[in-house]
Amino acid sequence: MNRVCLLAHGTVSPWGEGAEAIKEGLRSGRSALVREEFPRLGTLAVGRCAGIPDEPGEDRAALLLRRAARQVDTPVRKLRETVGPDRFGVCAATSKGAVLLFLQDPAAAHTRLLDLLPDAPARLLARLYDLRGPRQGRTGACATGLLNVLQAADWIALGKGEAALAGSTEATLTPLYLSSFLNLGAMNRKGCHPWDRRHAGFVAGEGAAVFLLASERAAERAGIEPLAMISGWALRGEAYHQTATQRDGAQVEGLLRAVLADAGRSPAGVDLLAAHGTGTGQNDEAEARGLHRLYKDGTAPPVFGVKGAIGHLMGAAGAVELAACLAAMREGLLPATAGFEHAARECTNLHVLRETRNAGVRSVLKWNLGFGGHLAGCLLEAP
Questions:
Q1: Chain segment 273-301, per-residue pLDDT in tens
Q2: pLDDT over 90, % of the chain
Q3: E strand or H helix at 312, and its extent?
Q4: Is the dihedral of CA 117, 122, 125, 127 positive or negative?
């Protein structure tokens, strides 16, 4: 099995563009949520990528992905000098497809069919860099971003390729989309409060992230220092409910134990937990119970989530949040969770910080949970 390195990443989120925006957002604990008026829905809090105007004829999700990909252009081209296009894969998707493109011009949709599909991001990235290795777009609702990164890691670990671009994008801040979650009772109109006694739903956002992955040998040949290693990962399917996870936390515990077993690590060896953290009662309780089962002796490290600051980026959530994990590890941060003040009764066992602290962080356990029972997790470690 080849060791898998994360070499570079590009991000666009409500905090801004690039790694520095993620670092500043984590360090300051700044909330980037804004209040917007939507036809027939009224005022909603959302995580909007400010300062990025729409471009005629291009879906906004594709636009955000291009801006994220632009940030990894130099290392991708450097790696391409030693890794042939047939050994360079792409795994990227959006969980909803090109919703905004369809709404702009429904009559022309039949001429843009491929652009409307969830795997359009993979084709876009492959065309940008003439990548001809394994190509896929994996959709798994809110776990989509992490699923695509881990699929690419699988290819590299198994020798199906030497390098890959992986990630996800989402841009669906439109009444058609938002109303469905309001009707479901899953959204909070005013803000997001993960694990807090005020938790009453998530806030929707938009964003994109692209990661450059490679085998350790390929990184050495290209002379690129890894940012981190993906030392273990696991995927699970929870056949429980279309839009809910088991409150007892058994599935969360099982996922995290599988990740740690794959990495050959114990729960005690983790410095930081990066949770899904939607701010919905059921998700928060399931994560709290799952971590209680994993750390029965009460020694769990701090847990954090970024959805209280930038919103739930849906298909892009796992990828952008993975970038936040990298920032925490490389900057030596135990991040606070925006929107958290007083723990909900069922979440009192969690160690959630109200203020960001400086500390040595050598490993981060990250997971995402998606509607339909999609569970994905990985362990990041310092190189």
A1: 999 999 999 999 999 999 999 999 889 99
A2: 87
A3: none
A4: negative
Contact 135, 89 (CB under 8 A): yes
248-284: b or e for each residue (b if 16 or more CB lie within 10 Å)? Answer: ebbbbbbbbbbbbebbebebeebbbbbbbbbbbebbb
Q: Which two tokens mark 328?
A: 């925490």
The model's pTM: 0.96
Longest Cα–Cα distance of the chain, Å, equals: 60
Q: Which residues are catalytic?
A: 142, 276, 312
User: DSSP H helical segments within the chain, as ranges?
Assistant: 19-28, 60-70, 73-80, 99-104, 113-116, 120-129, 144-157, 175-184, 216-222, 250-263, 281-294, 307-310, 317-331
- Domains and their CATH numbers in the chain: 4-222 (3.40.47.10), 231-381 (3.40.47.10)
In DSSP terms, 165 is beta-bridged to: 90, 212
C-alpha span between 311 and 87 (Å, rounded): 36
